[in-house]
Amino acid sequence: MAEIRVKKVEQGQTKIRNVPIAVTPEGFWCCPSPVMFQKNLKTQHPLNKPRSSSSPPTKNPSDHRKHSQELEKKPSRASSKSETIVTDDQINNGFEPPVLGAALVAERTAIRPPNAENLPRKVSIEFGEPGTGDLKVVLFGKQGFIVKLSVHKVVVEENSTFFAQKLLAKHPSFQCIEIDDCEDVETYVETVGLMYCKDLKQRLIKQSVSRVLRILKVAEQLGFKTCMESCLDFLEAVPWVGEEEEERVVSSVLRLQSEGIGVSPILKRVASDVSKPVKDTLSHVLQLVLKSNEEKGRREMKSVVLKLLRENNNNKSNPNSSLLTSVGICNDTIYTSCMACLDSLLVLFRQVAQPEFSEHLFEVKDPVVKQMVLEADNLSWLLDILAERHAADEYAVMWASQQELAGLHPRVPIVNRHHISCITARLFVGIGRGEILSSKDTRHLLLKTWFQPLIDDYSWLQHGCKSFDRKVVEEGIGRTILTLPLEDQQIVMLGWLSSFLKAGDNCPNLQKAFEVWWRRTFVRPYTEPTNSQPLD
């Protein structure tokens, strides 16, 4: 049955033409794709080309008939084969062929209908010396593309378990193997050609990762173990560019685990055998960033870590996502760092609040002040991380309970202390946006403890903090106040009104929140319904 199908490929009057073979700098002979094959046939038949717009609109009918008769009388010529011949003596003496000593011949019918592009394209490839192949391998690709390979049984049987099993099940005189639905004919031909190559590693050098993955897939189908091992060595040694390419490599390698192929060196790039807890690694990363004094590197890595943790948080619904998506592991580590920074900040405030601190030399004061600013910035960054993860509720409780730190606030110069008011402002923004769901008592305590220090530092926040957005902060403060019971709203609003009438633009402008409170109090007072008796 196999011989019959091959005869169908060869039947009919054919005209042999040379098909260009693409030779890469690395030495691969590439079977042309169906598109290239189609283009080659089109260029050889100018009659199939559409008429140019510059041609005359009419033509003499007698000239047309004369031209057609000349074409019919013109005999078809067979061009010479383009082939590379390598003898057995050359191979035994160490001569290395390019990869395929191959003759590539295109076959087509002599007379083609108008829609000839849809007919099967047929290509023949011969390995080794012409006429020495004792096995035909016919590949049926997509869109009717057919490739006939002339190979040697001893070569393919030695390198491929697939061909070995096929030949074992057939009669010794069996001469043809057909492979239907071949997805990647070009890579299939290339992989078969690698069976004739002595040094596969050299042939893979400078190839793209995607190309080697295609070769690996075909080698796996053919049971070409030597090629599979060479492809894995290549993938282990080269960099993978981009997440998409990394995922393709890992998925291809994982598929080979069950076949006993050594894939561990490749998987070690993406998976560690060390049983070190993820919590310890995350804590180490955070500590390195928190303790850094180099402004540029610190600023960039803060942005990178925040972005990566945000991605982990967005992928927590994916079962294959990172271990950092575990809320307990990540949040506990962050809160531990928060407490350490807060303890350090409190110690520094106590030191700076001492009356004699101002009398010290600049060399003594400057490191203390810089460390205080650094710890305040660390707390702001950790708050951003927790707010992104919707886990800043405990942070609000922790900050609202810092009465000692708030008491030391007025005794520290405003140029040094205003950084901690950024933390208060960020909490108000989070509560106002619904990102931080604090209890009523926590919100009231936060306003009671930190609202007045925020008012005192407001002028410095506007001019000394680049990331400070006045409108956003004022909206957050107003919304936070309006979440309190009406009696507490009144206390806070009257206190703010007194400060605003004194400081003006150096105080948060809460007029919108004031108007809402006013209407709730005087215009639309809500009264609980009483159990009144209906009128008779």
Automatic annotation (TrEMBL):
Residues 45-92 are annotated as: Disordered. It comes from the Eukaryota. InterPro entries: At3g05675-like, At3g05675-like_ankyrin, SKP1/BTB/POZ_sf. Residues 45-57, 77-92 have a biased composition (Polar residues). Keywords: Ubl conjugation pathway. GO terms for biological process: protein ubiquitination. Residues 283-524 form the At3g05675-like ankyrin-like domain. Pathway: Protein modification; protein ubiquitination. May act as a substrate-specific adapter of an E3 ubiquitin-protein ligase complex (CUL3-RBX1-BTB) which mediates the ubiquitination and subsequent proteasomal degradation of target proteins. This is At3g05675-like ankyrin-like domain-containing protein. It comes from Mikania micrantha. The lineage of its organism: Eukaryota, Viridiplantae, Streptophyta, Embryophyta, Tracheophyta.
